[in-house]
Amino acid sequence: MQELKRLYGCFGPYKKDLFLGGFFVLIETSFELIIPILMADLIDVGVANRDLSYILHKGVQMGICALFSLISGLLYARFAARAAYGWGARIRDAEYEKVQQFAFANLDRFDTASLVTRMTTDVTVLQNAVNGGLRPLARSPIMLIMGLGLAFYMNARLSIVFFVCAPLLGVILFAIVHKVAPMYTVLQKAVDRLNSVVEENLTAIRAVKAYVRGDYEEEKFQTVNKDLTRIGQKTFGLAVLNLPTLQCLMYTTIVLIMWFGGNMILQSRLQVGELTGFLSYVLQVMNSVMLISNAFLLLTRSLASAHRIGEVLTEPVVLTSPENARTTVENGSVDFENVSFKYRADAKEFALSDVNLHILPGQTVGVLGGTGSAKSTLVQLIPRLYDVTEGAVKVGGHDVREYDLQTLRDAVGIVLQKNVLFSGTVRENLLWGNADADDDMLWEACRAAGAAEFLERMPKRLDTEVGQGGVNFSGGQKQRLCIARTLLKNPKVLIFDDATSAVDTATEAGIRATLAGLRDMTKIIIAQRITSVMHSDSIVVLDDGKVHAVGTHEALLKNDPIYQEIYATQMRGGDDDGSEND
User: How would residue 1 be classed by pLDDT, with cut points 50, 70 and 90?
Assistant: First the structure.
């Protein structure tokens, strides 16, 4: 219920359109209910007495009612569409805004494909519920109640047949809705799985082609596609049973009413016009029950989608700025004090354990370690992409949890291990680092990152188009553009998370020389190549989430076996124990 209240609040300015749509449905229904009474009078009085003027008079009244009903229906369609699509747009905005607030820990709870489905398919389901459900929900109860009342008013005895069949229909339709309701949640999860396979395949299409795995990917897609088809057929196969059920009972009711009504006409206890008008109300009542059942099916599916959307909107944001947050980072010092971290509270082991590090402002610190040693995890705690589980991380002498998040992340520039460029131009991507940067500043950052070398050869230079994900740039080019973008921030702490792995050694040497000139900026460089960090002021060796050793290149090469092994393997080649070969 709380989810529905939250989503109802998303109507905002479109609440007026929603209520106007419902109002015009009521007007439309009222005019439709008048028509059978006029028709009964037309037959029983006008036709029976051969009174042409009376027939024309009643015909004009019926025509006016039909015209006003049509106009009301068109106005309903206009306002309902505005309400439905305006509401859907506001829900998507709310979801997208909430996702932007998510920390990495929040994003770990949702698959990317699932988030896409929740912002598209699930919102469309809600829109269809309003667009297709508002009309029957508003008019059907009125049609049902007034139709029953008017039918009883016209002939109480004949209406007994109807009062027996209508509840039977309601029971059957309720059973169908009750059975189908939980199946819609299963259906939406199947859509999630399908979107996940499609997204993965399209993202990695080059790898698929390189390994000639198209047939395998096609089989995988066919599996989830057939699964979705099977669930959809089962779900909607049950859902559509309401139509033949209605038709069966409706025609049974009509036959019984015609039988008993015909006998009553023969016995002069009922007029033909009364039977005709009574049948009109019967059809209206039965149709109203049918429309209510369809509306409940829409609402049942929309409830499943509303719950999924509500999970996103009500997800508590793990990381937020504190009250009276600090808005200034004094310097680039970084301290890890007894830091331990695990990604989930219920995880059995810590990703990082008992980390103590002290990095002075302006220092250059390298971080080495094997795969899975938690190098990336370590630096992600500095801009507070995750919060520590135990201990404290300090920047500028203060706990990162004391800072305004935007202030902290503006002061900490990080080039992530996975390079990301956005659709647009090179200029637009670079301006992420500094929205006020002019061309001179952009080119200066590009030269510092080694990106000017290839940009100057491109016809449009800074205005070169960037394909989705930077597909028209090589891995090394993307890395250099990401480095230039981060340098434009002019942060107090600059983090390279294996950010030069795809560039050649000469370009890397030029980037290192540029970084060495940034004396007021603290540099933390995660690398696989020992040459990337050997000139650092200090090198941290991580092993299995713990700080194994800290020191200069010379000191570690002399005293630390892990560093000796890395050096021997990369620089000269070595035996299994890391000793040097002659």
Answer: low
Instruction: Name the residue range of residue 293's domain.
Output: 2-313
Average pLDDT over residues 535-542: 86
Domain of 183: which CATH number? 1.20.1560.10
Does residue 281 sit in the same domain as residue 380?
A: no
Q: Count CB neighbours of 63 within 10 A.
A: 12
**Residues 104, 227 share a domain:** yes
Give the span between the Cα atoms of 528 and 214, in whole angstroms.
32
Sheet holding 364-369, edge to edge: 412-415, 493-497, 522-526, 364-369, 538-543, 546-551
Q: What is the distance between the terminal CA atoms of the chain, rounded to a whole angstrom?
A: 75
Q: What pLDDT does residue 147 have?
A: 67
Q: Which positions ≥6 away from 365 have C-beta within 8 Å? A: 359, 522, 523, 524, 525, 536, 537, 538, 539, 540
Our CA angle for 234, 247, 62, nearest 5°, is: 130
Band of pLDDT at residue 515, cut at 50, 70 and 90: confident
Same domain, 338 and 297: no
Based on the fold, state whether residues 124 and 173 are members of the same structural domain.
yes
Q: What is the pLDDT of residue 203?
A: 66
Tokens linked to 581: 């070969």
User: Is 421 among the domain residues?
Assistant: yes
Judge whether residue 581 has pLDDT over 50: no
Looking at the domain assignment, is residue 326 inside a domain?
no
What total of structural domains would you count in the chain?
2
In a domain, 113, yes or no: yes
pLDDT by residue (tens digit) across 179-230?
776 777 788 788 878 878 877 777 667 677 776 777 777 888 888 888 888 8
What CA–CA distance (Å, rounded) separates 12 from 8? 8
The pLDDT of residue 211 is 67
Q: What does pLDDT average to over the chain?
A: 79
496: left (phi over 0), alpha (psi -120 to 50) or beta: beta
Do residue 357 and residue 209 come from a single domain?
no
Q: pLDDT tens across 98-117, in order? A: 888 887 777 777 777 778 88
Given phi > 0 = left and psi -120 to 50 = alpha, else beta, which region is 384? left
Report pTM. Answer: 0.65
pLDDT tens, position by position, 290-331: 777 677 777 777 777 787 888 888 888 878 888 888 888 888
Which residue, 250, 284, 313, sits at the end of a domain? 313
- The closest of 21, 299, 292, 41 to 145, measured between CA atoms, is 292
Same domain, 278 and 241: yes
Q: Same structural domain for residues 262 and 396? A: no
Q: Are 231 and 190 in contact (CB under 8 A)?
A: yes
Give phi and psi for 497, each to the nearest 5: -95, 85
* Whole-angstrom distance, CA of residue 3 vs CA of residue 6: 5
Taking the C-alpha atoms of residue 566 and residue 547, their distance in angstroms, rounded to an integer, is 16
**Strand pairing of 334-341 and 352-359?**
antiparallel
Domain end residue (candidates: 313, 347, 380): 313
Report the CATH number at residue 342.
3.40.50.300
pLDDT at position 242: 66
Rounded-to-integer distance, Cα 542 and Cα 549, Å: 7
- 3-class state of residue 489 by DSSP: coil
Residue 577 lies in a domain: no
User: Within this chain, do residues 423 and 290 fall inside the same structural domain, yes or no?
Assistant: no
Dist. CA 390–CA 100, nearest whole Å: 26
